[in-house]
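Subject: complex prediction, re-run

Hi both,

The earlier run crashed halfway through, so I resubmitted it with identical inputs.
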Amino acid sequence: DIQMTQSPSSVSASVGDRVTITCRASQGISFWLAWYQQKPGKAPKLLIYAASSLQSEVPSRFSGSGSGTDFTLTISSLQPEDFATYYCQQANSFPPAFGQGTRLEIK
Amino acid sequence: EVQLVESGGGLVQPGGSLRLSCAASGFIFSSYWMSWVRQAPGKGLEWVANIKQDGREKYYVDSVQGRFTISRDNAKNSLYLQMNSLRAEDTAVYYCATSMEVPMFDYWGQGALVTVSS
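This time it finished cleanly. Structure:
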C-alpha cells in the first residue's frame, strides 16, 4: 500500500501570510493527488484534484503542484476562514490513502 | 444542489451489526462511483469501501473485508453500508461521498457516528 506523509503536522500563521503544506507519497503516484480542507465538526471539502486542478467554487488563493512523489498545497494569502486541517490523498492505486493531516492554526 | 444525507448510526455492542444509509439528491446518482470514508474520534481520514455505478464492482480496505458490505439502489438514489462483527476500532464518523472515475471524493455527506462499545 502507498503511504502518504504530510509536513508539517501543524503550522501557525497570520492572516495574509503565504503558507505551503507538503505531501510525500511512498511511491510514485503520477498526478493522482487530491487536497481536502476540514473544519471542526464538518465534513471534508475537496479543494484540489489531479494535483493542480482547482475544484469548482474554491478560491484562487489555493493552488496545488507536484507530480510523482512530492506535492505541495499553497495558500497565497491566508483568510480567517482558512484556519482548518488539510489532508492530501492519493488516488493512483488501491487502497486510496490519506495523509495524517496538517493543522493550520492562527498565530 | 448536491446533497448526501447519512442515517443509521448509533451505539452498538462489539460483535453487533449496523446498517448505514446515504440518501442522495441533486445529481444523477447512477452515474457516479460512491464511497464510504470514516474518521475515528480525533484521528485522520480512512477510505473504507467504494462501489461502481452499476454495483458490479466493489472494493474494501483490508480491515473491513469480509465484515462490511457496500451496496446501492439506483432506483432509490441510495447507498448502504452493512457492518457486521463490529469492533471497538470501527468507532468513527462514517461519511458517504461521491467519487470521480479515480477515487477522489468531490461531495460529502455530514457523517453518521458509529460507536462500538459495551
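The two ends of chain A are 36 Å apart (CA to CA).

- K.
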